[in-house]
Design goal:
- The complex is a heterodimer of chains A (386) and B (604).
- With 386 residues, chain A is α/β, with parallel strands linked by helices.
- In chain A, 40% of the residues lie in helices and 23% in strands.
- Chain A is globular, with a radius of gyration of 21 Å.
- In chain B, the strands form seven sheets. Chain B has a six-stranded mixed sheet with strand order 2-3-1-4-5-6, sandwiched between helices. A six-stranded antiparallel barrel of chain B has the order 7-8-14-11-10-15.
- In chain B, helix 9 runs antiparallel to helix 11 and helix 12 crosses helix 14.
- In chain B, 48% of the residues are buried.
- The chains are: A alpha/beta (386), B alpha+beta (604).
- Chains A and B meet through helix 8, helix 9, strand 12, helix 11 and helix 13 of A and helix 13 of B.
- Bound molecules: guanosine-5'-triphosphate, iron/sulfur cluster and magnesium ion.
């Protein structure tokens, strides 16, 4: 049987300490025991998922360990999970298996890297964030720039060919030249993938409070836009191609897992607060640890209800996601799942945006965002959502 | 059902009139309480201020009739029909309508403040109606009370014999029995003339369940429940479902006879047929002549009302129709704007009136409104043509040679302690006032009369007057005449396109200043777009001010992975919703607040 591809996201919700800007579902673990209990629950959840008929006989083409700080997992724990997935579902040949790793979270990086490589991980996404020690301190990260560089070198030395670096720009008080220095240094690390994220400072975070109290200035959005476009130029000159708003890769080295989110591929999320997209519905797991573990012990999936959007809304959501990528949206891809009318209405709207120069036609019924409008993409997307 | 049996000689119909805040409603409270007319559990201060807006702002905007039974010292039982009235200038039409239902008034004066501008104005209204005036000096409990000075002012300014003035404190309940006796003694009973049924509709309101309700003062004859009445001006017959009195809530009774004040509920189909000032008569035996009715009134200011949601035009019309039943000073006619769609051009007696109407529409009828900038009515003459009246700046004739433009002037009476004469006169001059006269009304206070353009008076004149006189000066004004002025039309262009609802007619000398301020204001209110948006103020083809809203540079979601999708989609949908609530001119979205911003500019 020809089943569509399927991806798996595994959430690891623990960190050593909360960063100053973070409002993700993550927190310091109370004890090693808590982590063990969580890993246990996670394998149970995978078992429960494998029982559900939608996934019968399906295997994964990508797996992603995200967090939190999944690099706090021991090699054994990672192996347990991967083996569990192999047994219950199956992992395709040549599957992409990534893990997020933070410098400063692993005691013996060289050893750990080679062990997890052996366990089946073949791609690393490293939370470098900045290569300026003052900025790292401002962000509340645990590592220095030297730690980050050593960490990346260790990864390459351990045989990882696919290494991605995450960077953050647009920090309070950061100048464009500081940002470009970080970027230059990151480029010299010769990773094959770089993501650059404009800093968001959610309400309630310590960094937001420091801004409110006047300790740091509010980041300047004009400057953030300048930084973005400057980075774009620098990265493309260094041989990275932008393939999504914030993601750059050497040709052919795009993150296949993340592409699933933007290209309407189905994915299962396992772990605390993880999201799934299956058969046109979106599900989310509970984000309270006790409830999560309790549900699984009781033999139930820890889902918090599903959401199935009406066709028009669903289609437009998918189009927006696709427009985040430089490949853009191909309306003909939707003909199986949506009515002719929904699609042609969307086509009319997109053609209207094209006339205004906001999107570019890349073929018949295909559009991509005009690159110069990337940083105001939400203004454009808001014109096509429901 | 209440019995209505009381000798016509024992009826007393009176209004309480005064300058704003001199204590009318509080005095009515004491009268209601001493006659046990309200249940003590139901009582609350300013009991007769029933509208939410009145209670919240602590000011009366509606006349309120109430029937009271009072046992006097002479042992007789009297039936009092009391009408509490507003004191604010913008609601003086409520006062004049109340007076037509009465034989007397209590002219209340604050013992500390003395005679003020609306004391004088309301006194004149009472005089025109040939009513007996009972002067009442209130707030004698205040340490600054000076009843003797007030008495002198009453004599000097109004020519009232103040020997009989009743001294009271409505707050402390002092002098209320004396006042009650004075009412019985001085206010005459209604003159009972034989004749066919004739009742004056002095007010009305719309009730969700019962429809239109007419408030009636019977002058001759009788109206009974179950009979058929005729609205004389409307020429419409209706069956009477119920008649009753305000005791103090609507209480049914068998009939309303000459001299009575009460209400009539008739099956009025088209509520526009119920007109305040009309006469009701018995359809079976109709009177030949209607009662004199009311003088029509001219609005002082106009503005456009548009419902924020353009589909709600019908609801707005319905609400205006119903509200107009309860506010006969409100006039409205359909208007359409290229930007705001279909709405109504409404006329008011002042900005406070406009504000109250807007709030009542929003609260009582659940309508959400955009109001455009208020304007007075101008008179424009194009060469060789008849003058036209312009109450909407967008009707201003373009590209033609204008012979003259006239604007309405009012005669403003300002009462002020003499130490503020200087600042008051300076203010009046600043507002293009023309001095008419100045007289001493007592040793320390003067009355200054000016002719001032209405457009200068309606916005901030009153606030400025108060602040330059430390709150002591008071103001009253009436329409005087149209006079030529140097006026021009100021247009606002957003994204190179003229926005009709932002145009205004201004004095040539202030055009530059106002244009600049509006443009500055709009720059703050209009959100950034994907392109830059030029804002311009223009007089004719001359641009007098310009600003640019720079293009937005950042509106991006940096991270959008599996768990973020739903939240981010909702965010985008919200952005889209926000845009929908705005009004668009070309490609530019203008938030609704922008249309109000002109008002603020006018006020500064
Ligand atoms: N000290 C004192 N204050 C009083 C007295 N009578 C009324 N007040 C106060 O004066 C203020 C205005 O009273 P209202 O009864 O609302 O005055 P009003 O004349 O009905 O006002 P409008 O209807 O808005 O014109 C309130 O704060 C009252 O409490 C009084 O006899 N003595
Ligand atoms: S490491 Fe990542 S998930 Fe953990 S606190 Fe920092 S930003 Fe949040
Ligand atoms: Mg009052």
């Amino acid at each position: 049987m020809n089943t569509p591809p399927l991806s798996l996201y595994i959430h690891f919700p623990f960190c050593i300490r909360k960063c100053a800007y973070c409002d993700f579902v993550s927190s310091p673990a109370a004890s090693r025991k808590e982590i063990t209990a969580y890993i246990n629950a996670l394998s149970h959840e995978l078992r429960l998922l494998s029982f559900s008929h939608e996934f019968r006989g399906r295997s994964f083409s990508t797996i992603f360990f995200g967090g939190g700080t999944p690099s706090l997992m021991r090699n054994r724990e990672i192996k347990t999970i991967i083996d569990c997935v192999k047994d219950l579902f199956g992992i395709e040949d040549g599957a992409e298996v990534s893990i997020e790793a933070n410098p400063g979270s692993v005691t013996k990086p060289a050893e750990w890297f080679s062990q997890i490589h052996a366990a089946g991980i073949n791609r690393l996404s490293i939370g470098v964030q900045s290569l300026d020690d003052r900025e790292l301190a401002l962000l509340g990260r645990l590592h220095t720039s030297a730690d980050a560089e050593r960490f990346v070198h260790a990864a390459t030395a351990a045989g990882f060919g696919a290494v991605a670096l995450d960077l953050i720009y647009g920090l309070p008080g950061q100048t464009a030249s500081h940002w470009l220095i970080t970027l230059d240094r990151a480029i010299t690390l010769s990773a094959d993938h770089i993501s650059i994220y404009c800093l968001e400072i959610p309400p309630g975070t310590p960094l937001r409070q420091s801004i409110q109290s006047g300790e740091f200035p509010e980041p300047d959005t004009e400057l953030q836009a300048d930084m973005y476009y400057a980075a774009l130029e620098k990265l493309e000159n260094a041989g990275y191609k932008r393939y999504e708003i914030s993601n750059f890769a050497a040709p052919g080295r795009e993150c296949r897992h993340n592409l699933t989110y933007w290209t309407a591929v189905e994915y299962i999320g396992a772990g605390l607060a993880a999201s799934s997209y299956v058969d046109g519905s979106r599900y989310k797991n509970v984000s309270d640890m006790k409830t999560y573990v309790g549900r699984i012990r009781a033999g139930r999936l820890p889902r918090e209800g599903g959401e199935r959007l009406a066709a028009r809304r669903a289609l437009r959501e998918l189009a927006v996601m696709a427009l985040r990528t430089t490949a853009g949206v191909e309306l003909d891809r939707f003909t199986d799942a949506f009515s002719h009318r929904e699609i042609s209405e969307l086509g009319t709207d997109l053609a209207g945006l094209e006339r205004q120069g906001l999107v570019i036609a890349t073929g018949r019924n295909s559009y991509r965002l005009a690159p110069e409008h990337t940083f105001i993409s939400n203004s454009i997307f808001s014109l096509i959502v429901c | 059902m209440l019995s209505n049996n009381v000798s016509r000689d024992n009826i007393r119909n009176f209004s309480i009139i005064a300058h704003v805040d001199h204590g009318k409603s509080t005095l009515a409270d004491r009268i209601l309480q001493m006659t046990n007319s309200v249940d003590s559990r139901a009582f609350r201060p300013q009991y007769l201020d029933r509208l939410e807006v009145e209670r919240e702002r602590g000011v009366t905007v509606k006349l309120q009739a109430v029937r009271i039974d009072y046992k006097a010292d002479d042992g007789n039982c009297y039936r009092l029909n009391l009408i509490d009235t507003p004191g604010h200038v913008d609601f003086s039409y409520e006062v004049s309508r109340s007076l037509a239902a009465c034989e007397g008034v209590l002219l209340v004066v604050d013992a500390a403040q003395g005679v003020e501008a609306q004391t004088v104005a309301n006194f004149h209204l009472a005089q025109e109606n040939d009513l007996v005036i009972v002067p009442v000096i209130n707030k004698i409990d205040l340490p600054t009370a000076d009843p003797q000075r007030v008495k002198d002012e009453l004599e000097l300014v109004l020519g009232i014999d103040s020997d009989n003035a009743v001294l009271v404190s409505a707050k402390e309940g002092i002098g209320i029995s004396e006042l009650m006796e004075a009412i019985v003694k001085y206010v005459p009973p209604p003159k009972i003339e034989k004749g066919l049924a004739r009742g004056l509709i002095f007010d009305s309101h719309y009730d969700k369940y019962r429809g239109a309700i007419a408030y009636v003062r019977m002058f001759t004859g009788v109206i009974r429940a179950g009979s058929t009445i005729n609205f004389m001006a409307a020429g419409r017959d209706c069956e009477v479902n119920e008649v009753g009195v305000f005791a103090p809530d609507m209480t049914p009774c068998e009939k309303l006879e000459s001299g009575d004040v009460g209400y009539v509920i008739a099956g009025v189909k088209n509520i526009k047929e119920l007109k305040v000032g009309d006469t009701v008569t018995d359809a079976a035996n109709p009177a030949l002549e209607p009662l004199p009715g009311y003088r029509g009134i001219q609005p002082m200011v106009y503005c456009g009302y548009f419902s924020t949601d353009s589909d709600k035009y019908e609801d707005l019309r319905d609400a205006l129709e119903k509200l107009a039943l309860n506010d006969s000073a409100l006039v409205y006619e359909p208007e359409s704007s290229a930007v705001l769609g279909f709405g109504f051009r409404c006329g008011f007696l002042g900005l406070f009136h406009m504000d109250i109407i807007q709030e009542r529409l929003e609260r009582e009828y659940d309508i959400s409104l955009v109001a455009t900038a208020p304007t007075v009515m101008y008179r424009v003459t194009v060469y060789g043509e008849e003058p036209i009246e312009i109450k909407n700046p967008s009707e201003y004739p373009e590209n033609v040679k204008i012979d003259k433009i006239e604007e309405p002037f009012v005669r403003a009476q300002i009462l002020t302690p003499e130490e503020y004469i200087g600042p008051v006169m300076e203010l009046a001059k600043d507002k293009r006032g023309e001095f008419v006269s100045m007289d001493y009304i007592s040793e320390m206070r003067v009355k200054i009369v000016y002719l001032i353009p209405l457009s200068e008076v309606i916005f901030d004149f009153f606030d400025k007057l108060k602040s330059c006189s430390r709150g002591f000066a008071s103001l009253d004004y009436q329409y005087d005449s149209y006079r030529p002025s140097k006026l021009c039309k100021l247009d606002i262009l957003v994204g190179e396109k003229k926005v009709d609802s932002l145009s205004m007619i201004v004095h040539s000398e202030s055009a530059y200043h106002k244009g600049r301020r509006i443009v500055e204001k709009l720059r703050k209110l209009i959100p950034r777009h994907m392109f830059q948006v030029p804002l311009q103020a223009a007089v004719g083809s001359r641009i007098i001010s310009r600003e640019t809203i720079p293009a937005i540079r950042k509106n991006v979601t940096a991270k959008c992975y599996g768990g973020d999708i739903t939240r981010k989609r909702k965010l985008l949908e919200k952005q889209k919703e926000g845009k929908k609530r705005m009004k668009s001119v070309g490609n530019v979205d203008i938030p609704q607040e922008a249309f109000l911003s002109i008002l603020e500019v006018e006020k500064k």
